[in-house]
Amino acid sequence: MHQPPIGHLHAADPDLAALVEAEARRQFAKARLIASENYVSPAVLEATGSVLTNKYSEGYPGRRYYEGQQNVDPIETLAAQRARDLFGVEHANVQPYSGSPANLAVYLAFARPGDTVLGMSLPMGGHLTHGWSVSATGRWFNPVRYGVRAEDGRIDMDEVRDLARRERPKIIWCGGTAVPRTIDFPAFAEIAREVGAVLAADISHIAGLIAGGAHPSPVGHADVITTTTHKTLRGPRGAMIMSTAEHASAVDKAVFPGLQGGPHNHTTAAIAVALKEAAAPDFAGYARQVVANAAALAAALAERGFDLVSGGTDNHLILIDLTGKGVPGKPAAQALDRAGIELNHNTVPFDPRKPFDPSGLRLGTAAVTTRGLTAEHMPRLAEWIDRAVQAAAKQDEAALDRIAAEVAELMAAFPMPGWAPAP
Q: Where does (6S)-5,6,7,8-tetrahydrofolate bind (predicted)?
């Protein structure tokens, strides 16, 4: 049953309530290894579903365009203060609706259309909004892209420096969506200072690891930091922008009125809850366990002959090149889903296949760690992944069904925040 209960939804719209319950059962039964997903606490769920969704609050605390902000202003102020305290930053804006609008606000604050920006190539692990061609950021600005070295899958900082010196970008992005290794924020900062660029660190994937002390922080190196509030941070689907005091006004004006109207107050409240949870002592243990689980899973996969981009991982994320297994990423991911293991197909560096039918898989350990799995369970996950990929090659549906039953049996022993089977 759902926690908090959804009795009113069952009464008002039983069809939709049934779908919500079905999704909860699916999340309970599967080993969820999508690197950008997690489980939020019941407290975050309650804040997200609260009456705060009724209130419109265009503007900032103390400077709103609507009356009746006596409670909303303290909520947003509290969320921003918790972000400043947790990450040790001078300024935090908690209003962005999601990660992409947060990144767009950085462009609005620090660049003009046509300016040059330097970001990581999407197929190499970067994000669409770091200047990729199909994104508005690649169409409105002049994108220059860096990648990774073919021999080891690591970011080529020499290439970053050479491109920055030659192209003189206004903004340099670091961070991405499929970067399994520690980001060298000091090296990026040195390059940005040399060429007079604003360094923007997108920590959406690793924010929870940074908050928990399991990954170095960009604070003190990056001029501006963007992040989603879910993924490893275990909050709602929202975003934040953090910066030095020098850039606070530019950031705030870019978010509102530059890009958005009223913030989603229920999400702001849920962000505040998640930030309080991330500041608790046990969250540091969670962050360390996420990294330990990823390392154990990567080692177990490597032992089974999987080709890991960069040879392994330093964070929560693992990128697999399936070329040697003879199965493309998309059918492998679909087979794994049928086998009770949820992840996503993904391009790998220098991938000869198309993005919608790539050679790789991307997976992460944030969600299974929230459920309570530890490093001792990772070899079993690797075994199931191996068996499922082999079954995908043979189109052996019966084998996938057997794996799914084994996965569900294991996951049933670990509670899921927000839902539990009926007694």
A: 122, 126-128, 246
